[in-house]
Task: structure prediction
Amino acid sequence: ETGVTQTPRHLVMGMTNKKSLKCEQHLGHNAMYWYKQSAKKPLELMFVYNFKEQTENNSVPSRFSPECPNSSHLFLHLHTLQPEDSALYLCASSQDRSGIDTQYFGPGTRLTVL
Amino acid sequence: AQKITQTQPGMFVQEKEAVTLDCTYDTSDQSYGLFWYKQPSSGEMIFLIYQGSYDEQNATEGRYSLNFQKARKSANLVISASQLGDSAMYFCAMRGVSTGGFKTIFGAGTRLFVKA
Result:
């Protein structure tokens, strides 16, 4: 398997549910990212992990909880979400923190909160 | 402040013709990178091409080329010989030291429609 994979591809959940999004990269990268893409808005960076350490939290509400057990895996735990959290959630990875290295994205998880 | 501007919300091009998607940027960084991504309706962001701020030659990748004009702070994407499969959203993006090392700034995107 190559590149960046995300599961599930689609998720529908109620506001009281707890679910998790999974991201896995097979590129040997050290940095991983979560982005949120809402309709008609630019991509919003949520979290950044470098060598398993969180280096960026872009003022994300606590109902989103990231976890990075190793450099290849990244999770986003969801609980008590709101309908406005419905969006495409994209995971990405890059080689290291050079600042100018290319990010490679997964296919995304399309989340609908009812 | 870092900023990426894509002024074309939508573009139409005839199949087999070339098309230019505009991108201007604003940065105070001396060293930065510019990227173009393609996002089909499936949602995946596909990396297309990269241009470093110190690269003297314009980047090319197959049918994609980046028209980099540093003084004008523009990084337009040129797609030659358009194909129906090129219909998608296209995002211009930038990374540099002052965007926090990891932050990539994305433009609002341009939706390209290729007509048969």
Q: What stands out?
A: The CA atoms of residues 83 and 113 of chain A lie 5 Å apart. The interface with chain B takes residues 31, 33, 42-43, 45, 48, 50, 55-56, 88, 90, 92, 94, 97, 99-108, 110 of chain A (CB under 8 Å). Chain A has a mean pLDDT of 91. Chain A has no helices and eleven strands.
